[in-house]
Amino acid sequence: MNVFARSALALSLSAALIAPAFAADASLKTEKDKASYMIGMTFGKQLQEIKDEVDLALIQKGLADSMGGGATLMTDEEAQTVSNDFRTKLQAKMQEKQKAAGAENQKKADEFLAKNKTTAGIKSTESGMQYLVIKEGTGPKPKANDQVKVHYTGTLINGTKFDSSVDRGQPATFPLNGVIAGWTEALQLMNVGSKYKLFIPGKLAYGENGQPAGGIGPNELLIFEVELLEILN
Q1: Residues recognised as catalytic
Q2: Per the structure, how many domains does the chain have?
């Protein structure tokens, strides 16, 4: 569930469980104090990205009215309608933001690849992927349905490292037909013992959705150094 949908759901289920603000000199002396503040922290973090869409004072009032068991300013049915409308609004904003980020990442990727292909040693495939042979092995080449063992490091255009089996000290194993298209294509070009540097455009990686949990945005170009260690089957 994305942050907007999760935040909207939190609002609809609990009227945003954010406790009234503590005084500046307040301390957490009891277990009740700690639990109360923890609840506020938890939902505050979940609502961080939509803080400009809500009024904290009214969130606190909705919480107080609901917990007090008295009259509320809207019925449960009205609250559900507002929740649905709010969720729709937030999802539309998220999609617009995703689209803009994807367009920007695509532009950067296109510019990078156009320049990169003029670099000595860079080869291009029909799919649009580029690669550089760092070391050419002498073993066999895997097929698309083979399982392989590799060491790799993945970075973004700006040099940010997002994953590395090398850093973990443990090679990765996987079936070639179970990974991103760029890897499926590239590993079949490599002999066991080879080490290549891959430049994989978004359409051959995580596409328009990206992989937010891994820090990869929509249409993000990925750069990998991959060493093919072994074919396992």
Answers
A1: 152, 162-163, 180, 206, 224
A2: 2
Sign, CA dihedral 36-42-48-50, equals negative
Q: Pairing relation of β-strands 147-155 and 222-231? A: antiparallel
Task: Check whether residue 40 and residue 144 sit in a common domain.
Answer: no
Q: How far apart are CA 197 and CA 225, in angstroms?
A: 4
Instruction: Please compute the mean of the pLDDT values over residues 152-178 and round it to a whole number.
Output: 96
Q: Quickly state the pLDDT bin for 69 (edges 50, 70, 90).
A: confident
Mean pLDDT of 162-172: 96
- Both 125 and 221 in a single domain? yes
Kindly state whether residue 181 falls inside one of the protein's structural domains.
Answer: yes
Tell me what pLDDT residue 26 has: 61
In the chain, the N- to C-terminal Cα span, in Å, equals 37
Sequence-ordered list of residues with C-beta below 8 angstroms from that of 49, at least 6 positions apart, any chain: 3, 4, 7
Give the residue numbers spanning the domain of 60: 3-73
Say which CATH number the domain at 163 has: 3.10.50.40
Q: How confident is the model at residue 174 (pLDDT cuts 50, 70, 90)?
A: very high
Largest CA distance in the chain: 77
Evaluate whether residue 41 is within a structural domain: yes
Residue 157 lies in a domain: yes
